[in-house]
Amino acid sequence: MSKGEGRNAIGGLNTHNIPWADDDVQVDGANSATVIVSSAETVSSEESRRRRSLMARRTHGSPLYIKIPQEEQASGSSSSKADTPGNVTSDDEEPGPLKERESGEKRGLRRNSISLPTLNAADLETLVAVHDAAQEVREKQAKKDDGESMVCSIEPDTEQSSEDEEKKPAKKYIFRTKRRSSIAPLPALRLNDKEMIANEFDSQSVTTQNSITSASSLASLLKEKIQMFPSMIKKKKKSKDFKIKAFVACLFLIIVFLVGYAYIMYNQQVLARSYFDRVKLNKGQRVIGIYNEKGVLMVTGRLGTTIHSEKAYHCLTNNTLEDGSVCLEWDGKARMYLNFQELSPSVPCYTIRWQSLSPDVLPTDCYESFMGQGHWYGGGLTRGGNWPLETESFPFAPFITGDAKRQQWGNVLKRYFISSRGVAIQVDEKSPLYVSMNDNKSGEMCFRAKHDHFAFVNRLTPLPELKYRICTSDNMRQLHQQMTQQSLWDGLKEHDINVVHSLLEEPVWQIPSSGGKGITGDSIHNYTERVIALGFLRLGHVLVNEFWQRHIGDFTLETERFPNLEETVTILHRRGFRIVFSVQPYISTDSDNFAQSVAQKLLVYERQSERSIPALTRYKSVASAGVLDITNNASIPWLIEKLEKIQKTYKIDGFYLDFGTSQNMPHYYQCNKTLYNPDQYKTIFTTALEGVISVIGVSSAVTVPRPPAFVSLPPVNSSWEGLRTVVTSALTYGIIGYPFIMPGPIGGDYLLPPSASNETVSFYFMEEPPLPDQELYLRWMQLATFLPVIRFTHLPSEYKSELIMEAVKELTLIRQKAVIPLLKKYLSDAMNEGLPLIRPLWMLDAQDTACLYVNDEFSIGEDLIVAPILEKGQLQREVYLPQGVWKDGIDGSLRKGSRWIHNYRVPEDKVAYFMKMPDNTRF
Q1: Contact 744, 791 (CB under 8 A)
Q2: Which one of 378, 418, 517, 657 is at 20 to 30 Å from 344 when CA atoms are compared?
Q3: Alpha-carbon gap, residue 354 to 374, rounded angstroms
Q4: Measured distance CA(194)–CA(171) in Å, rounded
Q5: 198 neighbors 171 (Cβ within 8 angstroms)
Q6: What is the pLDDT of residues 630-641, one digit of tens each?
Q7: What are phi and psi of 225, to 5 degrees?
Q8: How would you classify the pairing of strands 541-544 and 508-510?
Q9: Segments in the chain below pLDDT 70
Q10: Rounded CA gap, 723 and 876, in Å?
């Protein structure tokens, strides 16, 4: 099949019935006329003309007939349109002069292809004139047929060489606009020596084919196809355009990548980097923000405040840890490790560890503590005794136990702090910790690692390191439960549980000195006789202080003051009392055991000296004493042997360990084994005696002792101020994880002289207080009724007052019926999870903001709220009740919770307490 035949087949035309454009046209007088434009040869017959080849007819200047409609002829117009002149060749020929058509070949043109004659300049001018005349006729006809006329021109091909342009005359191409009816596709044409394939024209045609009946139709068709020529040129340049577009697209992607990379690096290195999804750290300013799962900011802190460098680097490989910690280093000043762990699915924790790389850098981190950032609790009792903790203000102080009257912290501590916003901070026990609160009104709680000459003189690392973890939760109570959760059942015996119950149910009787002469056998006998004479108080433990021995550290009974102690103890046991002796790890230089312990090297020795030189200190009334080195493997067996001998000889029921505080340790101490800090001493001591002898209490602690040992509240002054500190101390110790607490005796431990009220005087040098004021004693008794252990020194019968006796009887009944059952109920919670028996109100409802600030009320578990009177002469107070229904303990009325009760009246012989009732309780 030839190219012409292929195009004919595509066009779908029937070439047998359609006349050719160069056939002789008969004149129809009625409709049209035939105009002969030019004649080059005469054709003898139609059949011979049709047999002429297409190639021959393309190269021969055959006559062109244009059929003019009758309407145009009548109007005197010329032919509708003239064809565009030019050299036309076949598809297989190169541009050149037209060839003469071979004679005898008369095959007609196929319908879908035409041949254009060669036109000279005169012919071109004639065609232009004919075109102008026909244009006016077509415009009139177009208005009738709703057609549209258009005149287009094409500039010569810009790719034509300059040499060809000089040889060829300038030409003007004028074509007919798109016809109203469709036209047939053209054969392949070569225009301006650029070949255009016919099927490309066909793709631009959207009309159906019609027969070409005149030269005017032919010119219109040619114009329509040539009009599409610019788009054909664009198609020819498609390959070049594609390369340009591809290059532009690649360049665009590269730019997007670079911009995105720059943005990411900017946020990581300059603004904030996100670690573990919820931590934002600005490495330059070292500002950290911790968020919850909802994206809410929980706490903000400033890290490394003593580092004067903003440039941070990733640590070298040999400085990284294998636990997945992120490691950053600041110019050789300090190195920080940040790690993540889950305490539970709802409690994520982040561990921060600082290593100092320069002696000038003390790792210091500060966290916001002002009121708008929630309330902080924990740590321990401070000198001011404030609750919450952020209401306190003090500079950096070593975090070790001491006398809160002279040092910053009290006798019981835990490196644990919790915020009402659901943030808890727990500092590693090996860190040399200093703590400050609102120093210079900064509104921050700060932690610092610092070596010194006493508290943290033993350097576990060459330079100080600070390590702690931050845990967060949306529920403050659940967070506290997770952080303090510990089981106290391990190693417990049935006897131990019985001792715990006896301490909850029965009082502790602390025998006072007899007129400054010390405790004697007779004083113990007489005191217990008065207790029995009361008739309404249950019997309990008789606590004998350290003066059961001649010198502290003798660990033998002084027979001169206790000539018949064995008989006395037997009588007390028969009556129902238990006898407890107080022991200390101190050995007076006047004791016979001092020389023996020095010879056996059982004492703590002075630092940087031979072990034969003991380190001395002062404790209570003892001017000079050594300290038993419990890290020595020989010292604990030596002590246990002496205590067991006393216990078996005199039938002693237990011991109370009086450690004093870290401040009572020699300031140049050195033990056989290196201690983290002086407080570790009491932890090792308590652990060594657990399970060997029965210990009912300890005077100081930094870790929770195993039951039945109760932790004593700090000694307090016999004053209204001292009474107020009892509540805050009980709340604080419960928060930091000590569920079993033992308050001091009712009325106080000592009496501070009025002249020394503003001085920092240690209670260790104070004598036992005289009989307190009646109102103070009664209010103190009302408070102690609801505490885990009730402790007496002065008996209520000493007042000779009917009011006191009746009030104490009523309080004893309340304790027996309401308090003791609740204490036993929540005993299992304390043993299993470390939850306190005495709780702040926010543990009942952590979402109630009013509960967060109440510091003069407390609850026993979740069932009873106590609001004691703590001011002299006060007969009414403000009471806040959390959500729920509460039964008034004074008049038995029901009280609705989640509100304040203003001006609640409390008579002198009554105490305000409220029992939790079911929410649907109605009378």
Answers
A1: yes
A2: 378
A3: 26
A4: 15
A5: no
A6: 999 999 999 999
A7: -75, -40
A8: parallel
A9: 1-134, 136-138, 140-219, 221-222, 225-240, 263-276, 371-373, 514-517, 754-767, 923
A10: 17
